[in-house]
## 1
Amino acid sequence: MAEVTLKHIKKVYPNTEKKSKKGQKKSNLMVTDEGVLAVQDFNLDIKDREFIVLVGPSGCGKSTTLRMVAGLEEISGGELLIDGKRMNDIAPKGRDIAMVFQSYALYPHMTVRENMEFPLKLRKMPKDEMNKRVDEVAEILDITQYLDRKPKALSGGQRQRVAIGRAIVREPKVLLMDEPLSNLDAKLRNQMRAELIKLRQRIDTTFIYVTHDQTEAMTLGDRIVIMKDGIVQQVGTPQEVFDHPANIFVAGFIGMPQMNMFDAKLIEQSGKYSVELGGVSIILSEEKQAALAKNNVKSQEITLGIRPEHITLAEAGKDAITGKVDVSEMMGSAIHLHVNACGRDTIIIVQTMDLTGGEDLSIGSEISFAFGGNAVHVFNKESGENLEFI
């Protein structure tokens, strides 16, 4: 059990390209005189037994951050504290941290039991206590029947359970997991996600989990940290980042299908706000009105975000936007319509066939849709920031 604090953490890799200049970007990462900034000014307080998920696209710095916590990467700046003790210069073995890798990293010549015993042998734990620990963890992970097998005789999901078992058998203060499910097929990933949710209820440890899969982030994390180009974009509960994205990147990254984005105009008149889109005026909710008024937001051109599930089919008229169906995707219990409207390809979700009312939703047909002012998100056109939170 442990609290983990990251204060202004950064990671700089030496710049090997002589032509790179200060301020240039290399692979979307900032290049300075020091080198390539892989992680910039990372700040986070992780509570005891909290499950934190670092999520973002490939190359955003999430695995680098995890490896700095583990001691596998040197920290270029800032402080890492575990239970208040500075860890920057402490060797990995002195941090009381265990790590589960994407590739399992099991010893092929050892049995499952021997793999799980290995970190305990390094601690010179008595044989009886070692057997007890391994048996208890194997029961938790439902791998007791595999203890005498070698890794090559196991499936991917079974190997991943063994890797997790080897990590938690020594009861670390912090358990780090670097994309542990990415090598599994979709069915096994779903199964292992459920197992991880059960596991965190049964063991007293702090989890830091890295993934590029937003479904894993939303279902596993107490809080999620969304990163882009080495910079933290937003930290919050899954519901907070879904309902109140800090910027366009977060809005587009969290949620499936992605949030629709329109060019629109925000109108402010006597402290009241509305949005004009496709000839339709949308009055914003009282909550959004208050937030914009508090930030003294003025009339301006904006990017308007609306999640597909918040769009409904409507009758053609002054309060509805009309578009042409370009793609119709049958998803079983839902239909995803790609509609060309307001100069943008928009995804509309019809949740069930019963809600279509017999309307023609085939490719090439014209449909009308609407959405309420409580469901829209208003972003600055230049910076991409959510105008409710500036």
## 2
Amino acid sequence: MLQGSFVAIVTPMLADGSLDIPSLHHLIDFHIDAGTDGIVIVGTTGESPTVDYDEHRELIKTTVNYVAGRIPVIAGTGANATREAIELTQAAKDLGADACLLVAPYYNKPTQEGLYQHYKAVAEAVNIPQILYNVPGRTGVDLSNETTLRLAEIKNIVGIKDATGSIERATDLIIRAPKDFAIYSGDDATGMALMLIGGKGVISVTANVAPKLMHEMCMAAMSGKTAEACAINAQLFALHQKLFVEANPIPVKWVLNQMGLINTGIRLPLVPLSASNHQSLLNAMKNARISPK
């Protein structure tokens, strides 16, 4: 079972919006050196809605090849069309990803039965470990716990990234899900609490800029070292909040640029962080003891 701090890694881009592969290599080294437990490539934070199919494949291939087995690579392969999700998931398997993360189909608002049939079809078509991803604030659809539990019976559906921020929902899943089905937090602000009650880690935005601390917080929380986990989480909490002061990944890309790790590139319709929010991010960085370059 995959456990720990999994970075929902940004996609570095040059000022013109083109992919910056050398910076992606640098970020991967940064994470491996800091103890990050796995990399999620081409997720929401990786600007998956605005990379095309060839770029999507290139980012997965580049990450798998450069990581070279040092830590697990999870590829974002969700789509609001089932055939497209199958195609992306098969591509990720062929390119050597260790697992896939599939966001609930967005915009077309399927029923719970539609969600079940969608995920079942992908799981049956591609034999690779698959993690469900529920983020109703972005997708406009909520994958219910009952549907999740039905899907948990499918062999290669191995977990869920729950980005609802609801500890009540996560507790219900932890109690009722099969023991080999992992619940991961997709909400940094409540991630520690989820792990203290049995969650297996965080798929994290904060880990982009504070990978060592996120890894240490996850290890402490999952091993029951509550005081240590709380102390680290308190240091990171301003980042958990302020990295969402504008739509993700706008703030986290700005912080990474301030750290000297990536260029300023981001793709429309997203635009760089508003100047009015710079100071609040600088304050959060200071609280986490992250220094601008």
## 3
Amino acid sequence: MSENKRKSLIESIKDKGKTIEAEMSFFDHLEVLRWHLIRSAIAIVIFTSLSFIYYDFIFDTIIMGPKNPQFWTYRMMCIVGQKFDLGPDFCIKDIPFNIINTDMAGQFTLQMNSSLLIGLIFGFPYLLYEIWRFIKPGLNPNEKNSASGFVFYASLLFILGILFGYYIIAPLSINFLANYTISSIIQNQITIDSYLSSVATLTLGAGITFELPIVIFVLSKLGIMTPTFMRATRRYAVIVILIIAAVVTPTPDILTMLTVSFPLFLLYEISIGVSARVDKKRRKAIGV
């Protein structure tokens, strides 16, 4: 065998060894990720099981809360309405619709789905913790320091969003839709699936929306989002937020609209600040 052929064979063997090593590393990472996901799933199953066991309280107090005229949000609206003389329409005394079940297994499915929903909500912070544990070893020291509060802030924003969606968006939307009629001969008979879907969508949607600063942080780190772009599009964001507030509020008064829209405005401004901070650090790192 000539010298050139021997060198070529050695290089091929080395390249093959590197490829095998890279493939093993990839599958090792998959195995690590699998265990992180398994632990997250176990936590969600535990919370789901607890929700299933204590379902009477969850259904009567939590799920059916926005249907009850004595719900915290409605009571606060009555107090505010009386204090500022906003009129009788601002104080909600009745939610005019009946909830029915039309499927044989509807109530059992309701218990399973809503228990899983509660399990996902309570297990979400632990899921974030497991994701952070997976990506942390691949970060350099500066990235670890800048993202050290990821789990805390992401969990805090998610919880605040859930509370905002459950106590503000969901009850106002349900009251608006329940009182919206096109004819007096039509009676609102709402299926339990439709009611649960509405409450879950509005509540989880708010929780996910409140993750906007975290999303902006990641996009800014990747160089996709800049504070200049967000400031330039602020006017459009204001219009979108006002439209959302107008849709979910039960009355056209400005106070209720501001109650819904203010946290969303604040969220957008916080996101601009987050993006500006990331952009400043990146410019400082490259000496600009």
## 4
Amino acid sequence: MNSDSNTATKTAIVTGGASGLGYAIAQKFVEENIRTIIIARNEQKLQEAKGKFGNLCSYIVFDLTNLPQIPELVTGIVEEYGKIDILVNNAGINLKKPFTEVTDEDFQKIMLTNVTAVFALSREVVKTMLPHGNGAIVNISSMAAQYGIPKVIAYSASKTAIEGMTRAMAVELSPLGIRVNCIAPGFIATDMSAKALDNDPERKNKVLSRTPMGKLGTPADIAEAVYYYASEGAKYVTGTVLPVDGGNSIGF
């Protein structure tokens, strides 16, 4: 237990915590008595999430592509809540476009949000974890880093970078007490994916046919895996990428 006046055992940051996978992760953390700070751009969604999650949740409206402001963001969190124990780098954006139509700006925008912002936030949070000699970072990858998916070149590059960064961070930071792991979600039923798959029956059939379990996952499936990595149960686990995908990544 920290010496915090509240009963929370730990403090976590979840980026993109107001919707989709981030929402489920934040919900799981709060259920497990972890003080959870959700960060996203949409204040209305953040307010709604906080309303559902209660007093152990707080939110910050912030655009993570605003790199110069990230150090100040992290300093403010530490000043208010004491130390940061867990960081979940969940926020990310996708772009579906034929390869030759992706502009330099398109590509850079995805890389900025999905890679550079993750790096910058992790760097600043790690600075605050080092004096305590412990911490857990969980990055979110994708099936796009496990095998080739057409029309998502920038997203694929960004998520492959996340897996490489996970290993590099783990090797450097684990001797200092900070574990770094990564989850590669398969096809998960969220509002966003439902829209994409329902509008494209051929793609939906392809997804299900190469998923041995024959169904989509739920956001809660990802949340359980993230919680495992963030918990003491994974205290000897670092530098790994865990597919939570119903077997999709090895499906035939």
